[in-house]
């Protein structure tokens, strides 16, 4: 349990730090006015979507690196990091070119206000240059989790975002002798901080390569294998995006209060997902290492312990949300109509959490076992066969937020059934 706690705590710190920085960024830019805040919101949304679709650089690399680390092939585990870093740089440079050219058109498509769209595009055209190093950071987190290094990823992320935080305040408002750049100051702070984090991960990789004698040249065999896993993980991620975008679109058609309530509870769900995901990441690393060492019994033991820990955490959080059902939503909104609308999805969230505890843990176990193809198929079937139809049926039959969140509940139950069946079958352990 000590290794599970260390890995999950490290992963949680890395996962939570960027959203916390974003809150600071929004607060700092928000003092400039609603116009600048809207532009920042759209700009960070586009940047986040790009990063979200490429998280395979962390999750896929963790699984492959951990397997080789567990087999006693530390050099091979580091070589996985080299391959993932080359993919990050190649894809990152391509995204910089595309993002810089397409930014004005993308923003005009998303924002009806021409002035806000222009400012959002201007912000993105600065921040987009940090994408290659953002992706290097994802790859770095992946191989470091694989070799079970817990301290360096946290230090790298905290140092980078700490610099971003200082520069954000200084450059946006001209504090501490820095120039007052307004909204552009936020973009430069983002670029410098994310770039610093990426450089720290790259430096760590170079140090390990020098000590191990692994080549820094790209290995086509490793890169092809990683891209195969990437295909499965990106497809899986896209199915999530389609469903949640559809849910927001349908909620917006019910009422302003409904979409506000939906987004509040969804943000709580996404934050709690980070908590459960940290335990899943620990499972990826430890299960991958155990299977790499052909220690099937140890892999199954880790799977059981992580699942129990995840369920305990989710039940405790659900109990807190249930006790605070009448007071906690007021932290996010004071409008009586919105608070009334929040009640329905809030109780759905409470009911889903214990199910999510099992699903997230077993997701981590199966990813650690390299079972990405199965997870892709299971998620697609659950999302497109359950969640998505119920979202749109809610609009047709006017089921409201209860219909949308029933779809999410069905989605989680279907995932529980599929990953539970896969886990009990034992094929993942071979």
TrEMBL record:
<dbReference type="InterPro" id="IPR044644">
    <property type="entry name" value="DinF-like"/>
</dbReference>
<feature type="transmembrane region" description="Helical">
    <location>
        <begin position="346"/>
        <end position="366"/>
    </location>
</feature>
<dbReference type="GO" id="GO:0005886">
    <property type="term" value="C:plasma membrane"/>
</dbReference>
<keyword id="KW-1133">Transmembrane helix</keyword>
<feature type="transmembrane region" description="Helical">
    <location>
        <begin position="38"/>
        <end position="60"/>
    </location>
</feature>
<feature type="transmembrane region" description="Helical">
    <location>
        <begin position="373"/>
        <end position="393"/>
    </location>
</feature>
<dbReference type="GO" id="GO:0042910">
    <property type="term" value="F:xenobiotic transmembrane transporter activity"/>
</dbReference>
<keyword id="KW-0472">Membrane</keyword>
<feature type="transmembrane region" description="Helical">
    <location>
        <begin position="187"/>
        <end position="210"/>
    </location>
</feature>
<feature type="transmembrane region" description="Helical">
    <location>
        <begin position="399"/>
        <end position="421"/>
    </location>
</feature>
<protein>
    <submittedName>
        <fullName>MATE family efflux transporter</fullName>
    </submittedName>
</protein>
<dbReference type="InterPro" id="IPR002528">
    <property type="entry name" value="MATE_fam"/>
</dbReference>
<feature type="transmembrane region" description="Helical">
    <location>
        <begin position="81"/>
        <end position="103"/>
    </location>
</feature>
<feature type="transmembrane region" description="Helical">
    <location>
        <begin position="233"/>
        <end position="254"/>
    </location>
</feature>
<dbReference type="GO" id="GO:0015297">
    <property type="term" value="F:antiporter activity"/>
</dbReference>
<comment type="similarity">
    <text>Belongs to the multi antimicrobial extrusion (MATE) (TC 2.A.66.1) family.</text>
</comment>
<keyword id="KW-0812">Transmembrane</keyword>
<feature type="transmembrane region" description="Helical">
    <location>
        <begin position="308"/>
        <end position="326"/>
    </location>
</feature>
<dbReference type="Pfam" id="PF01554">
    <property type="entry name" value="MatE"/>
</dbReference>
<feature type="transmembrane region" description="Helical">
    <location>
        <begin position="123"/>
        <end position="142"/>
    </location>
</feature>
<feature type="transmembrane region" description="Helical">
    <location>
        <begin position="274"/>
        <end position="296"/>
    </location>
</feature>
<feature type="transmembrane region" description="Helical">
    <location>
        <begin position="154"/>
        <end position="175"/>
    </location>
</feature>
